[in-house]
Amino acid sequence: MPANKKLLVLPGDGIGPEVMGEVRRIIDWMDRRRSLSFEIEEGLVGGGAIDAVGSPCPDETVAKARAADAVLFGSVGGPKWDSLPFEQRPELGILRLRKDLGLFANLRPAVVLDPLVEASSLKPDIVRGVDIMVVRETVGGVYFGEPRGVETLPDGKRRGFDTDVYHEDEIARVARVAFDLARKRRNKVTSVEKANVMQSGRLWRAVVGEVHKAEYPDVQLENMYADNCAMQLCSRPKQFDVILGNNLFGDVLSDLAAALTGSLGMLPSATLGAVDPTTGKRHALYEPIHGSAPDIAGKGVANPCAQMLSFAMLLRWSFGLEEDAKLLEAAIEKVLAGGLRTADIMQPGMARVGTSVMGEAVVRELEKLSA
Ligand code: IPM
Ligand code: MG
C-alpha cells in the first residue's frame, strides 16, 4: 500500500459541495480499485466559513492547507454575502490561500473536447482541436498591490485606486513555469501585457525576454498586447499553445479561453507554489474554473466534470500519478462521447442528466476502462 497522501478538501459554497461529492465517489473508487489511499481532511472556506467562524479563510484552514500535500478547492461566494464589507468577502478565502501558501502559478487549460465541439459559441472549424494552457501569475499585480483604496477628496468626491506592481523575480519565476510547460507541449509561449501603456507591462516584457534568452532559447516566444490576445482568441484560437499573463490579464483571458470550449463546467485549474529545495515538495491547490453558481446550487444539476478534472490535475501534478490522471480524464471523455450531458453542455439529441448521474457514469466508465 503506498504511503498516505494528505488531501485538504474545501468544498466551499454554492455548487461546490455537490460537485465535490462526486469527486469523493471517485476517490473512494480509486481507494478500492487502485489502492491509492488518501488521508482526507475537510475545512471551511468562503461564505460558509464566514457564517461558521466569522472569517472567509480561518487560520485553521490555512494551517491545514500548509500541512496537506494538496488542496482540492470547490468554489466560494453567493448573493447571501454580497453586501458584506470588502474586507470580509468570501472571495478573500481563495486570495488568502494563494498568497499565504505562495501559490504563484495558476495553470488553466482550455481544451475543446471532440464530443463538445458543438457546445462552443464559435464555429466548429475555429475551435476543433483547441488546446491552450493559460499560465496566470496569482500572488502579485493589482490583486495585492499597495496603495489601494477609496478615498474622499476635500471636495467630497471619491477617488478609487489600485496599484499594479511586479518585482522582476515574480515575473521571472512564473515565466519559467510557462516555458517549462511549453517544452512538454507545442513549444510556444505567448506572453501578454500592455507594454504600450503600462510600466509594469514594460518590465514584464523585458524580463520574460531575458529569461527566454538565457534559459529557454529553444522555445518560441511571442509577445502580444493583452487586448489583441483577447481578439485573437476569438478569431484564431489554434495559434496559441501556452499563454502567459499577469494576475489581472490572466484572470480575464483565462475566462475567455474557457468560454471557447463551450462550458466553464468542464474546466479545471491548478495553482502551484515553488518547489522546496530541501523536501522537493510544493504547495498546490486545484479548483474548477467555474464559480459557485448560486442560481443552480442545491438543485443537483451542476456539472461535476471540472471538479473531477481538477482532481485529475492533482493526481498528476502533486503525486506524479499520470496513469491514474489519464484514466480519469479518459473516463470523463467516454461518458460525454456516450451522450450524457449536464444542462450547461446540453445539445440536441443528447441525454440530459444531473450531477450524481454524471458522477455515477464516470465511476462506471472507470470500472470498464480498468477491467
Ligand atoms: C478566479 C476568480 C477569482 C479571481 C475571484 C473569485 C477572486 O475570478 O479564480 O479566476 O479573480 O482570481
Ligand atoms: Mg476569474
From TrEMBL:
Chief location bin: cytoplasm
Known EC number: 1.1.1.85
Sequence positions that bind substrate: 98, 108, 136, 227
Origin: domain of life: Bacteria
Annotated site residues (Important for catalysis) in this chain: 143, 194
Pfam families, alphabetized: Iso_dh
PROSITE patterns for the chain: IDH_IMDH (PS00470)
Catalytic activity: (2R,3S)-3-isopropylmalate + NAD(+) = 4-methyl-2-oxopentanoate + CO2 + NADH
Residue sites binding Mg(2+) per the record: 227, 251, 255
Cofactors required: Mg(2+); Mn(2+)
Enzyme class label: oxidoreductase
Record: residues binding NAD(+): 78-91, 291-303
Start and end residues of each Isopropylmalate dehydrogenase-like domain: 6-362
Function summary: Catalyzes the oxidation of 3-carboxy-2-hydroxy-4-methylpentanoate (3-isopropylmalate) to 3-carboxy-4-methyl-2-oxopentanoate. The product decarboxylates to 4-methyl-2 oxopentanoate.
PANTHER family for this protein: 3-ISOPROPYLMALATE DEHYDROGENASE (PTHR42979:SF1)
Protein name: 3-isopropylmalate dehydrogenase
Organism name: Roseicella aerolata
Gene (name only): leuB
